[in-house]
Amino acid sequence: MNTRLRFSLAASILLGFALTAAAQQVPAQAEAERIVSGTVKDFSAAVMSGDFTAFHAQTATQLKAKYTPAQLKEAYAAFVEAKIDVAPLVQGLKPTFDPPIKLGDDGVLKLEGSFPSTPRVTFRCSYVYQAGGWKPLGVGVVKEAATGRAAPAPADAQRLVLQTLQEFSDAVSANDFSALHARGSTPLRKQLTPAKLKESFAAFVDQKINVVALMKSKTAEFDGQPSIDDDGVLVLKGTYQGKSGPIRFTVKYVFEDGEWRWLALNVKT
């Protein structure tokens, strides 16, 4: 049985230019938040589908004149080829603007700042007011580099992964994923409710599979040393010897609030 949850992280590429436009009022904070969140969501949809037609149609006239949908896709090839999806990271999060929201004398609205995601996603977007709304003129999204935090020692990694699998087993046995959800990272909690998390592991719940109870040994055999990838994600992958066969696992974590919180979980019995 193999159940997998994945959360893609962001990378970076920037696109932008300026022009002369009619003056408009600076949008309120809540409106600016809605504007940039919508842009990031629409951009991610284009990246994941590999089709920039709908995204292109929502942009400013000047950007449309400079780029076709195919050229936009080419400009963001790094995102498309790597299937980098920033939407799950920032879903439900409010952006912080730094510097403050600015409307230039040329009528270009500049929204720059970041989302409090892990890793942090920053943005640099510009807009002009056309056809009753703010249309993207330049869109830049950047994933911050990993923090350089060291991976935990093997003994600590043993305790961490066993704790996560115990919490997972408790959730399956209780038919209640609230506690497991609460132990998850911010991106996971924003993406999935406890009910959706339970649905993702329905095969375990329906068959009442308690992973920890199936273990013959509670010492994991890791596939190599615990490591942190380029996104700052701790990857713990390996095998437990089970009573009726090996139990394979991959658990991913991000460091939040002084501790490692799980981001993705894959278990195969």
Explain this structure to me?
- This protein has about 270 residues and is an alpha+beta fold.
- Helix content is about 35%, strand content about 25%.
- It has helices at about 30-50, 55, 60-65, 70-75, 75-80, 85-90, 155-175, 180, 185-190, 195-200, 200-205, and strands spanning about 1-5, 15, 95, 100-105, 110-115, 120-130, 135-145, 220, 225-230, 235-240, 245-255, 260-269.
- The strands form two sheets. Strands 1, 8, 9, 10, 11 and 12 form a six-stranded antiparallel sheet that branches. Strands 2, 3, 4, 5, 6 and 7 form a six-stranded antiparallel sheet that branches.
- The longest helix is centred in the first third of the chain and has 21 residues, at about 30-50.
- The chain is elongated, with a radius of gyration of 22 Å.
- It starts with a strand and ends with a strand.
- The model is unreliable at about 1-20 (pLDDT under 50).
The N- to C-terminal Cα distance equals 5 Å
Topology as a string of helices (H) and strands (E): EEHHHHHHEEEEEHHHHHEEEEE
Q: What's the story with the biggest beta sheet?
A: 6 strands, antiparallel
Radius of gyration: 22 Å
In total, the number of strands is 12
Q: Level of helix content?
A: 25-40%
Q: Structural class given helices, strands, pairing?
A: alpha+beta
Number of helices: 11
**Which of globular, elongated, flat, extended, rod-shaped describes the shape?**
elongated
Mean pLDDT: 86
Beta percentage is: 25-35%
Contiguous runs where pLDDT drops below 50 for at least 5 residues: 1-22
